[in-house]
Amino acid sequence: MSFEMERIRHIGDMQDARWGAMSKHTFTARVMPMFGIALGVTAAGVYGGLQMLAAGVPMFALMALAIVELGLVFTSGVWQRKEGLNKVLFFVYALLAGVTMVPLLSYVGAKGGLMLITQALTVTMITFGGLAVYGLVSKRDFSNLGGFIFVGVLALLVTGLLNAFVFQSGALSLVTSIVSVGLFSAFTVYEMSMIRESYADEDYVGAALGLFIAFIGLFQSILQLFGLMGSNDD
Question: Which of 17, 40, 52, 135 has the greatest number of CB atoms lying within 10 Å of its CB?
Fold first, then answer.
């Protein structure tokens, strides 16, 4: 009996070793609950943004909050390990993500109604879930994707701004949406592999933030793609 117990414990130790410094307990008890709560906070942010629009707040004012949202992302390396502050700023970011999503949701809703938004969310959940599981169980090394994803996202931001204010091309919007889906799909796999291999228990907020950014980015990309495909514009 003692031999079997030692054997079972040894197998458990080998499984835990696959997770690098972060334990499975931290992932299931801290990372995933924070990720889920953040999605709920984002839904509240969407509701708040819709109420702001109904009250007459200009849509560009909501979009201006995206600057604050990006600032929280780019400074996350500074605050994600500061206990207490990290949770507050993470949920502030999740709230802003919901508010700043309202213009895109309004655009897609005008094209296909709530059904189109629901379809985009369903596709996102299925895609994200499959990619997350793949990143979790795959033995491949995805660490080299980090630099590629960062450069790709920056290029998309620049292209999106140029298209919004200069080119105003529907075809370019379609291309950037497709590329964005690919990038955030890769980011989902990358983030899950980093959680498994590199993150420590103290990085639970950063891990939840990474998963949240991957999910929201993928949803927005698919949402915009569905909106463009459902557009009646020439």
Answer: 135
Compute how many other C-beta atoms are within 10 angstroms of the C-beta atom of residue 202. 14
User: What is the reported pLDDT for 36?
Assistant: 97
> Does the model's pTM come out above 0.70?
yes
Strand, coil or helix: what is 21? Answer: coil
Measured CA angle at 209 (ends 205, 213), to 5 deg: 175
pLDDT tens digit sequence for 14-30: 344 446 678 989 999 99
199, 18 in Cβ contact below 8 A?
no
Is 190:145 a contact under the CB 8 Å cutoff?
yes
Classify residue 30 by its DSSP letter. I
Q: How far apart are CA 116 and CA 73, in angstroms?
A: 29
> What length does the chain have?
234
Domain range summary for the chain, segments of one domain joined by +: 22-229
The pair of three-digit structure tokens given for residue 72, joined into one six-digit string: 């929280």
Q: Is there a contact between 220 and 128 (Cβ–Cβ < 8 Å)?
A: no
Predicted local confidence at residue 231, as pLDDT: 55
